């Protein structure tokens, strides 16, 4: 039977607390997600039972993967002409799978802000139909490489964040 994330985290912190040295008065241990949010925190006062606090607002990642490895995000959409698509704000690698009913005359794609992205993150745009006019919105960001103003059928276009506020086109 597979353990839930909470069971795994609770077991980890319980076992870690059992190894608590006898010196000192209060110890605190935590599991932290890849963006720095505390998922589960344990506070132990000498001679007392540990308290566990679960932060439901934290980004719960798949702990079967190595920590620090991004979980990919796929956003499938069927936009109409004039639509605007936005990147996820979680710092995840992303594929924008654009599957409109036909050719799109105009489409806007909004890159994530510097605060809502991470170095090493990649974004790929892919459309099943032609996009005649593509507008890339990247307020406060630098996009390096060949500018993209239209999209061909079944062709991936990829950017990678290489530094603060800086993305390069790699495909």
Mean pLDDT: 76
Instruction: List the strand order in the largest sheet.
Output: 4-6-8-11-12-10
Structural class: mainly beta
pLDDT below 50 for ≥5 consecutive residues: which ranges?
16-24, 58-71
- N/C terminus separation: 42 Å
Overall outline: elongated
Strand content: 35-45%
Treating each run of at least 4 consecutive H or I residues as one helix, how many helices?
Answer: 1
- The Rg value, from CA coordinates, equals 22 Å
Biggest sheet, in brief? Answer: 6 strands, mixed
The quaternary state of the protein chains shown equals: single chain
Number of strands: 12
Order of H and E elements: HEEEEEEEEEEEE
Overall helicity: under 10%
Overall tally of structural domains: 2
Task: Please provide a written account of the structure.
By secondary structure, the protein is mainly beta. The chain has two domains: 50 residues, no CATH class; 97 residues. 8% of the residues lie in helices and 39% in strands. The protein contains one helix and twelve strands. The strands form three sheets. It has a six-stranded mixed sheet, with no helix packed on it. The protein has a three-stranded antiparallel sheet with strand order 1-2-3, covered by helices on one side. A three-stranded parallel sheet has the order 5-7-9, with no helix packed on it. Strand 11 and strand 12 form a beta hairpin. It is elongated, with a radius of gyration of 22 Å. The two termini are 42 Å apart. About 13% of the residues have low confidence.
């Amino acid at each position: 039977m597979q353990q839930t994330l909470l069971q795994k985290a609770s077991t980890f912190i319980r076992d870690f607390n059992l190894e608590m040295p006898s010196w000192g008065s209060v110890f605190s241990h935590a599991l932290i997600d890849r963006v720095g949010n505390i998922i589960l925190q344990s506070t132990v006062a000498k001679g007392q039972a540990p308290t566990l606090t679960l932060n439901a607002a934290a980004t719960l990642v798949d702990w079967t993967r190595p920590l620090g490895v991004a979980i990919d995000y796929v956003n499938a959409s069927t936009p109409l002409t004039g639509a605007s698509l936005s990147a996820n704000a979680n710092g995840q690698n992303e594929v924008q799978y654009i599957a409109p009913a036909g050719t799109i005359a105009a489409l806007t794609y909004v890159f994530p802000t510097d605060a809502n992205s991470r170095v090493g993150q990649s974004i790929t745009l892919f459309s099943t139909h032609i996009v005649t006019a593509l507008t890339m919105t990247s307020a406060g960001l630098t996009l390096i490489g060949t500018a993209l103003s239209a999209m061909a059928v079944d062709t991936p276009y990829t950017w990678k964040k290489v530094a603060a506020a800086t993305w390069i086109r790699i495909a």
